[in-house]
Design goal:
globular; single chain; 13 strands; seven-stranded mixed β-sheet; 2 domains; alpha+beta; binds iron/sulfur cluster; 33% helix
Length: 367
């Protein structure tokens, strides 16, 4: 058990071990991610409200430091950067010289990773490893990363991690995991270790033995979070979506609402598409190729002699059937962890769980 007043010791120990600390920060009214140095930098006493196409952070004066869930940013930017230079070329009069860029592999501790995002990190690792076994840039970055998970205590109305088996508490894929117990009279974290690196850091902390009462309080936090999650997704119907409903009229209805803005893919912690962009200076003496995040909602995505998916309905169908259905064929599991970001950050309020329910014939689904 880690008393809250010892939390800075955890951060200091990680910093001393050479990790840059990244954690939740409150910026422009949104829970974002950024470099932190001490507990003081965390957004304290705030809660977040989520609904389709809606997000709000409010101050609730609660004594906890982690009483919100996920903002629009996911941790993937630290393992799969939105933009990276692959190589540069310089030309003088007679010679062109190419120089490859080595991907950044900074030691980083990610602090406050929710169960759904821990699962998303593992999913992306499997994707990149499938394409580049044993030597992906993602794998190299992950090997330098220390994950401190935090169990959710106040899930949002858009969360459905329980359906996807990824939360609200993380059960693997972390180095340390914390459950926060916060009230007017006590504030502490029940700590679990998940790796040898986690155990080495834990040994350096001023921990008190977790009593039966501490453990019961921690399990009550997770139990209450499970009860608060109202949204769900039928995993079996999701898996069959591509085979069962390739021509469902609902795709056109969604296509009429969808703006093809790509927000859902940018905020999704498991989306992994990218494109290569070549740029050249105006005098033609130097050029570079960059890898940047792409989205299957972009009109020229997968451009191969012509537009592959002209209609917005076909782009949404591609995204949703891949995420929920054909991901199983490619990687042996679902591509969704139930974080709810695509629901919250869709300006049209399109809700993947409700669209699936409607296509699967669920009577409670919206018309
Ligand atoms: S599809 Fe939506 S709910 Fe599922 S992981 Fe991506 S953003 Fe989260
Ligand atoms: S589903 Fe929503 S977030 Fe995704 S592309 Fe369409 S309008 Fe944008």
């Amino acid at each position: 058990m880690l008393p809250a007043q010892e939390f800075d010791l955890l951060l200091g120990t990680l910093a001393k071990a050479g990790y840059e600390l990244v954690g939740p920060t409150l910026r422009h009214g949104v829970i974002g991610l950024g470099v932190i140095e001490r507990a003081e930098d965390l957004p304290k006493g705030v809660a977040d409200e989520h609904a389709p196409g809606n997000y709000r952070v409010r101050s609730d004066g609660s004594p906890g430091w982690f009483g919100y869930v996920v903002g629009q940013e996911s941790w993937k930017r630290y393992l799969f950067p939105p933009e990276q230079t692959l190589f540069r070329a310089e030309r003088d009069e007679h010679v062109v010289r190419f120089a490859g860029e080595t991907p950044e592999t900074r030691r980083r501790a990610l602090l406050g990773v929710r169960g759904c995002d821990v699962a998303a990190i593992a999913k992306q690792a499997r994707v990149f490893d499938a394409y580049d076994p044993g030597s992906s840039a993602y794998g190299a970055a992950l090997a330098q990363t220390f994950v401190v998970a935090i169990d959710c205590s106040h899930p949002a109305a858009t969360c459905f991690c329980t359906s996807m088996g990824s939360g609200p508490a993380a059960d693997e894929g972390f180095d340390l995991a914390l459950t926060e117990i916060a009230s007017d009279t006590e504030h502490y974290f029940v700590l679990r270790t998940g790796s040898a690196s986690g155990r080495r850091i834990a040994e350096k902390l001023t921990l008190e033995p977790a009593t039966r009462l501490h453990r019961e309080a921690a399990s009550a936090v997770s139990g209450r979070a499970v009860e608060l999650i109202e949204r769900g997704l039928d995993k079996q119907a999701a898996k069959r979506l591509h085979a069962d409903h390739p021509e469902h009229p609902r795709w056109e209805t969604i296509g009429d609402r969808c703006l093809s803005c790509g927000n859902c893919t940018m905020v999704c912690p498991t989306c992994f598409c990218s494109r290569r962009e070549d740029t050249i200076t105006i005098d033609g003496t130097s050029a570079e190729q960059r890898l940047v995040w792409d989205s299957c909602f972009n009109r020229d995505f997968s451009l191969a002699g012509g537009i592959v998916r002209e209609s917005i309905a076909s782009r949404y169908r591609q995204w949703m059937t891949h995420k929920l259905s054909t991901w199983h064929e490619q990687f042996g599991e679902s591509g969704c962890v139930g974080c709810g970001r695509c629901i919250t950050w869709c300006p049209a309020g399109i809700d993947i769980t409700q669209e699936l329910a409607a296509m699967a014939g669920d009577r409670g689904a919206p018309p």
